[in-house]
Amino acid sequence: MWRRYLRFWGPRAEADVDDELGFHIEMRAREYMERGMTPAEARRAATRRLGDVASARAECIAITSRRERRMTRTQVVDAFVHDVRYAFRTLGRQKGWTAVAIITLALGIGANTAVFSVVNALLLHPLPYPNADRMALVYQEPSEGNQTGMRMFINPQPSLVRLWRENARSFETIEPYLASDRALRATDGVISTVRAAMVLPSFAAFTGTRPVAGRAFTDADIAEDGRVMMLGEPFWRSRFGGDSSIIGKSITLDREPYTVIGVMPPGFRLPKLSEKVSDVWLPLDLRAKQRFEGGPLPGLSVIARLRPNVALATAAAELDSVYARSELSKGDHGDFRTRLASPSQIVDFRQSLVLLSGAVALVLLIACGNVAHLLLARTATRQRELAVRAALGASRIRIVRQLMTESVLLGAAGCLGGLLIGWIGLNALVAIRPDNLPELAEVRIERITLLVTAGLAALTSVAVGGLAALHAVRHSAHDGLKAGSIGVSQSRRQRRVRSLLVMSEMAVSTVLLVGATLLVRSMVHLQSIDPGFDQHGLYAVQIALPRETYTTRAARHTFVTDLADRVRRASGVSAVTVASGAPPGRSFMIGTLQLEGTPAPEAGQSGFVDFNSVQPDYFRTMGIRLLEGTTLTDTTAKSREAVVNVGFARKHWPGKSAVGRRFRVVYDGKEEWSTIVGVVADAALGGPTSEASTPMIYAPAIELFEPTLIVRAAPSADPMASVRAVIAQADPNLSPPTVSNIKDLMDRSIAGPRFTMVLLVVFTALALVLAAVGLYGVMAYSVAQQTREFGIRIALGATQSGIARSVLRRGVVLACAGAAAGIVGAFWGTRLLEQMLYGVGRSDLASFTIGALVLVITAVMACLVPMRRAVAVDPLVAIRAD
Amino acid sequence: MADAAVDFLKGTLDLMVLKTLSWAPAHGYGIARWIEQCTDDVLQVEEGSLYPALHKLEERGLIVAEWGVTEHNRRAKFYRLTTAGKKQLAASRDYWSRFAGAVFKVLETAPAAR
Distance (Å, rounded) from C-alpha A427 to C-alpha A241? Predict the structure, then answer.
């Protein structure tokens, strides 16, 4: 009956019922034939007697198949319940083993959970808006591109943004914004600084938010040039106690009254994650040219939502062509190229996150290696049990399913543990976050993270369990029973697999060790670097001058230079100077450098040129040595003097003096020549990570729009209180100035790299510990397996040191082989962190040596206990055993 | 009313099947023949409902089926009474005896003297 073989899939019920009814008719027909009917008559009569065969058949089939389905279901559930119960029992019997396996998995998974939470928030969902996948930041670049090594955006003009909004078809919406600090005067006259953001009425729809109270901006507000204001909900709650009666009242910002019209929820926020939360919102008027004029590069930050299926490059090209066709292009806007960047491309921490994701993936790999080894070792000791089960009729599938159930249970426990560790890790990570990554504080473990964690756990348990199960079934059948406790051929093969596992772990650890050492050495370099100026006792004082009251460049500049004179007389101040910027930070001119005697650059060409506007006493105040010539002498508006750094002089006139030479920075085909009057030492003004020898131009500070005061304190004095008092006296309506210790800022500017380094070191340490545990496990296991061999060798007169050497040799050989493979891997892998290294090359010999050495030393330590155990073998006991 | 009649008949059939199987396992045809012979062919088993009834009894766990070979060397499905089936048989038989006795009493009793 071939049908029988199809019973699992095929129509068993139907065939059975047909057989049964067929038999009945046959028997009845035989009965009738015995009574004298012809065969044909008998068959007809028998069929008639049965009545409605079809409906009886259908009813029987329905009943039977219903019953079979129910039975199959119960069988499957029963088998599963049995497997799980059995797995629980086996795992529970070896509590220590189970704990080690679960903790190992949990560490590997937890590290990934923590890092993935950050990746998810910062890289995958950098914008808190609906349809964020179609959003792009819009900015411009000089025609030569950006070669500063920093992220530099040129923000488009309001008129250009307006043109884009009206003409560009690739976009659903284009949203400009502008954030600034404003002085808010309370009813009692106290002035405080608030963060104000200017946006268009359409921004509410863009963010998908509605006012919590009152109303949002309308086009009418803009058209009527309304002085209206919305409050951010957190600010509304903290400052006004969430009182709705504030709506309709007036608030004074920078001496101008604004009427509060509404309160917006936290989802109404600027796209830049590191941007502080906006306290108040003001309407942005793209027509009001005058309000932005007079500032340095008055431009707007822009974020846009593209139409579906429009490529970034296409959209950027459209923006450029819209500009080229317009009247605006005939003005003096220079030739900028418009760029669109998807938000994740410009996340500050991007490179580090990629690096750290790689690192935790490697940690998980090592954890998997360890658990695989644990499972292998255990299936080896369970060989006899499995063989007995196989002999008693358990199918291979049954045994594989049993082993898989165990590893999936381990995986599930590891997943839970991993979530816990991930949560703890994430909190720790948030707690030590650098200042420039405030968005880290908002990272949570989200549903997608849970899914990814569960997925990782499932993947690891299936991979690891599969390996062990495969190994088990391949051997259990033949040599499990007959070989007794020592399956010789199989133990050799297993030994090879185990060696390979532990060697891979060693290799992976080496890659991480080399990477971590490189970052540590880079950090040591950054912290010990001489910035080329005296950063101690130096303060930067930034004063937010309201555009409404200090309307001209001249007025602003004069206010600050006058202020500098007063500050100079304050107690505890040894020197004061005014510049366009203070370290750590770089400022640029847009244009193309042309040296006298070289051909003029092509029209429309532009780039970023490092540039700082300073007063003559800047170099003395900063402690930058003057090496040649003089400092700036002419500080009038007509001054055409310049000072350059050594890097500039060496680059353009190597081996010759730069003093007396002339250059100009051409923008839009114009600009006058400047004469170099002095050369100063290189200084890392951009912070420890910046290159001090980057060519740099210092020009006289004339009519600066936003001048910065740089104050040098007298030795062991803190003059900042008196400086604040002087400023408050000069203009009582100003919001308090931002005063920063430059040394602190310089240190903080490397907080990001330090954070990355700390995390990589932590993950490397974790990897190293796991790998050491792995090596220990392999060594301990093989020593246990070789107990009898050691016993015999000792009995035959082997010395203890000989035994010790042979154990240690195996461990060191494994470690060295792993380290060698790891070094090869590191040569390739350190490419990931090349751009994060300062003062060390990525193939730095010292780092590779240190990495390999640390690994081998750790490996030797991991071998010590197994070695001692091997030496302590008692030959009598060992030989008699088993 | 028609429904009640069908249920009544089905109940009877189940009972007779169980009783038949209480002697020995049998196939469907064997059960039908046995009932016919016991009642001297007075009760003709409705064969169209016999098989669904058997399958339902099997589903209820009162009987189990196994494929076996007949004395004529033919493959046939044999039904056997389970423990649950034996209990059910005992319960149903008591009920039926009392029921039949009651009906019989009604039929035999003459009206009381006027």
Answer: 30
